[in-house]
Design brief:
Layout (H helix, E strand, L loop, with lengths): L1 H18 L1 H15 L9 E3 L14 H8 L3 E6 L4 E3 L3 H4 L14 E3 L2 H11 L3 H4 L2 E5 L9 H11 L6 E6 L19 H13 L2 E5 L14 H11 L6 E3 L14 H10 L6 E4 L3 H7 L3 H13 L4 E2 L10 H4 L1 H5 L1 H5 L3 H30 L18
Helix pairs in contact: 1-2, 2-3, 7-8
The chain binds zinc ion (ZN).
């Protein structure tokens, strides 16, 4: 397959130089400059949270994204979005919704995203591949078979994936729109997923809001309790909790930072990390000098537990891609140099490099293993 892709590439380059020499020279000179990983890594950050495609499974070409990363982002995770917004003619007519807020029609799990991401990754050079950590997302977390899907993806596309996610359990506006059973932190299907991820060494990137939108005063944030219990049930799984639990309208709860500090101090949660991705999260953190300082103090106190990410979805330009990084300027200024480096690169490197090694080892001993077909149940009609 790789030979075929290379051959197609070289025919394309040859034709290009024969028929459009000037354009071609410009394109390939630009691409060579923008796409090769920096010789000495002077990049600003590694991106622990990046979507190549959107809610209708469209996005930018991986080569275009390499251009967008340029020398600013040294490495990045790579995933699509596990959910597809359905275009229901009866709901929006000729208007084609491309975002979950643009229609009342449901979302559904789109497993093909994993094959898409794997093929995209396989289409770039080994040097370019080193800059990416692809993630499996196309599973339904309410399905007891979800872990089997993840296993199937690893076996079909070995040497590709480093983790699973971003997948969502509770998310404002989104969870209630998904067809089928409502996802829950207490569902054993989710335990099977996290068990399997721990067994293989896959990093888990999970989105779960810290609370419901617009909670009444004094109301118990039950999601937080369930989330803590879920994390504690899987001590051997490396987990990244996306966005510190915040959202578009899920605001920092009273004592948000103190609650997170308590969790970080709890040795039963040492395997849990937090990403500060999304411009919506940056918005809260830089909203006031006091909020910025309190967050910086917490990150300085627990420098190994936080990761930077953009949460950008198929950004068209480098300027768009860098906006979250730019927003965080006031926060970065208050971090010690060591903490800043860990937040932007060091923690990513430690977590994902370890995952690459573990997942490759698991694949080595499992890819060739024959699939064991489960015993038929009495109702399956298989003759005795
Ligand atoms: Zn995201």
């Amino acid at each position: 397959m790789e030979i075929i892709i290379r051959r197609i590439k070289s025919i394309y380059i040859l034709r290009c130089f024969l028929f459009k020499p000037v354009i071609c020279l410009l394109f390939f000179a630009g691409s060579a400059k923008g796409q090769s990983p920096p010789a000495t890594d002077s990049s600003l950050f590694y991106d622990s949270h990046f979507h190549l495609t959107n809610y209708i499974q469209e996005g930018i070409d991986i080569h275009a994204f390499l251009q967008v990363m340029g020398t600013k982002a040294g490495r990045s995770t790579l995933f699509g979005i596990p959910l597809q917004q359905q275009w229901e003619y009866g709901n929006s007519g000729d208007y084609a919704p491309s975002y979950y807020l643009a229609s009342d029609a449901p979302l559904y799990y789109y497993s093909f995203t994993d094959a898409y991401i794997a093929m995209v990754y396989k289409s770039i050079t080994p040097e370019e591949q080193k800059r990416f950590d692809p993630m499996i997302t196309g599973f339904n977390p309410t399905d007891m078979y979800a872990a089997d899907h993840i296993k199937r993806v690893l076996k079909l596309f070995p040497n590709v994936f480093s983790g699973i996610g971003e997948f969502t359990i509770h998310k404002e506006f989104v969870s209630s729109k998904i067809s089928g059973e409502t996802a829950s932190l207490t569902n054993p299907a989710l335990d099977r997923i996290l068990d399997f991820a721990g067994q293989v060494g896959l990093v888990v990137l999970i989105h779960n809001d810290i609370d419901m939108p617009f909670p009444k005063g004094g109301q118990e944030p039950y999601l937080l309790k369930q989330l803590g219990e879920l994390f504690r049930r899987h001590p051997n799984t490396t987990i990244i909790w996306a966005h510190m639990g915040l959202g578009r309208i899920v605001q920092p709860i009273p004592d948000q930072l103190r609650i997170i500090e308590r969790a970080l101090a709890d040795s039963t949660l040492n395997h849990v990390h937090i990403d500060i991705s999304w411009n919506e999260v940056a918005k809260y953190i830089v909203a006031s000098p006091a909020a910025t300082k309190a967050t910086a103090d917490l990150i300085n106190k627990y420098p190994n537990r936080f990761l930077f990410g953009t949460d950008e979805v198929a950004p068209a330009t480098q300027e768009t891609y860098l906006r979250v990084y730019e927003m965080y300027g006031p926060l970065f200024k208050q971090l010690t140099p060591e903490t800043k480096n860990k937040l932007l690169k060091g923690n990513y490197e430690r977590i994902f490099d370890a995952a690459r090694i573990k997942v490759r080892l698991w694949e080595k001993s499992n890819v060739a293993r024959p699939v064991t077909v489960p015993q038929p149940t009495p109702v399956s009609g298989t003759p005795e």
